[in-house]
């Protein structure tokens, strides 16, 4: 997957798929649905001319700083350091070799100066083995987006609800519901596009506004809580898997979160069964989970 592919998908109105990963297993889940590489010598045109679209896995794997909460148990993304992010990036890169890899620049790693931001981004590429970085913000990140684009580090921007500013925004609130805040979402998106961003995440904005912005931008929009009018969608993998059983339907998760599985509940049942079987000495089962002695003389010695 390349940036050119994402532009073509936007042009052809084929939705771009993005999902987060934060460690080796979650990266392997993404990799496991990647279509097999085309046989050498087979023409890519034949796949495009069939009636059904060519099979695709996840186009973009995001090492999002939401891992601060879902993988580290921090109360917000702002506790995550660049070094912690790098550790997660390397694990994801080992598991996920076909999707385009993007990682968040953590809170604070780009706030003091453009130079700080460039150094942090270089580390995500060089030590974290990412293809691109994602940065939250509008006009205030323009000098950094421009510099990174100049030196060849692709930038995905992130506007609308920007969780790194949740304290300043008075919580995780939908953005763009009033005219003035809708104008801000549009102006932020325009600013980062014009600075060179190759795509932009629109988080928690009304679907009509997201569709309007998507039509007017040259670059693809990736929505989360922004409706189907975006050029692509993203979700946090552990949220959509239902790893935390308190989140989602009926829980405290956001409205835009759809749970595709109940992994947390399944895990809880498994742990409960294990404890129960150990206590009842049902597990391990002799013969099935145990090793026999092969030397009969030695076996006799034990009796
Ligand atoms: O950190 C994250 O997972 C994100 C996505 C939800 C866009 O930024
Ligand atoms: Na993020």
TrEMBL record:
GO terms for molecular function: 3-methyl-2-oxobutanoate hydroxymethyltransferase activity; magnesium ion binding; methyltransferase activity. The keyword Ligase does not apply. This is 3-methyl-2-oxobutanoate hydroxymethyltransferase. It is an enzyme of class 2 (transferase). One of its GO terms (biological process) is methylation. The keyword Magnesium does not apply. HAMAP family: PanB. It catalyses: (6R)-5,10-methylene-5,6,7,8-tetrahydrofolate + 3-methyl-2-oxobutanoate + H2O = 2-dehydropantoate + (6S)-5,6,7,8-tetrahydrofolate. Pathway: Cofactor biosynthesis; (R)-pantothenate biosynthesis; (R)-pantoate from 3-methyl-2-oxobutanoate: step 1/2. InterPro entries: Pantoate_hydroxy_MeTrfase, Pyrv/PenolPyrv_kinase-like_dom, Pyrv_kinase-like_dom_sf. Pfam families: Pantoate_transf (PF02548). Keywords: Methyltransferase, Pantothenate biosynthesis, Transferase. PANTHER family: 3-METHYL-2-OXOBUTANOATE HYDROXYMETHYLTRANSFERASE. One of its GO terms (cellular component) is mitochondrion. Belongs to the PanB family. Gene3D superfamilies: Phosphoenolpyruvate-binding domains. Its EC number is 2.1.2.11. Catalyzes the reversible reaction in which hydroxymethyl group from 5,10-methylenetetrahydrofolate is transferred onto alpha-ketoisovalerate to form ketopantoate.
């Amino acid at each position: 997957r390349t940036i050119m592919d994402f532009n073509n998908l936007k042009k052809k109105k084929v939705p771009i798929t993005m999902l987060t990963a934060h460690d080796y297993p979650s990266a392997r889940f993404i990799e496991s649905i990647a279509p097999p590489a085309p046989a050498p010598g087979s023409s890519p045109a034949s796949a495009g001319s069939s009636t059904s679209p060519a099979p695709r896995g996840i186009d973009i794997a995001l090492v999002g700083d939401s891992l601060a909460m879902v993988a580290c148990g921090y109360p917000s993304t702002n506790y995550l350091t660049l070094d912690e992010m790098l550790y997660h990036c390397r694990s994801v890169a080992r598991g996920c070799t076909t999707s385009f890899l993007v990682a968040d620049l953590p809170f604070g790693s780009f706030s003091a100066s453009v130079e700080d931001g460039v150094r942090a981004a270089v580390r995500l590429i060089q030590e974290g083995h990412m293809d691109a970085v994602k940065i939250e913000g509008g006009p205030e990140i323009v000098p950094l987006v421009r510099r990174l684009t100049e030196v060849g580090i692709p930038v995905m921007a992130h506007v609308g609800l920007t969780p790194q500013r949740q304290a300043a925004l008075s919580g995780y609130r939908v953005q763009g519901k009033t005219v003035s805040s809708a104008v801000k979402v549009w102006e932020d998106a325009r600013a980062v596009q014009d600075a060179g961003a190759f795509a932009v995440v629109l988080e928690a904005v009304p679907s009509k506004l997201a569709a309007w912005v998507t039509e007017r931008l040259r670059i693809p929009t990736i929505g989360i809580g922004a409706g189907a009018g975006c050029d692509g969608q993203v979700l946090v993998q552990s949220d959509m898997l239902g790893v935390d059983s308190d989140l989602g339907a009926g829980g405290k998760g956001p409205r835009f979160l759809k749970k595709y599985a109940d992994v947390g509940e399944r895990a809880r049942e498994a742990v409960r069964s294990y404890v129960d079987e150990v206590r009842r000495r049902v597990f391990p089962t002799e013969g099935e989970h145990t090793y026999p002695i092969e030397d009969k003389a030695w076996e006799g010695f034990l009796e």
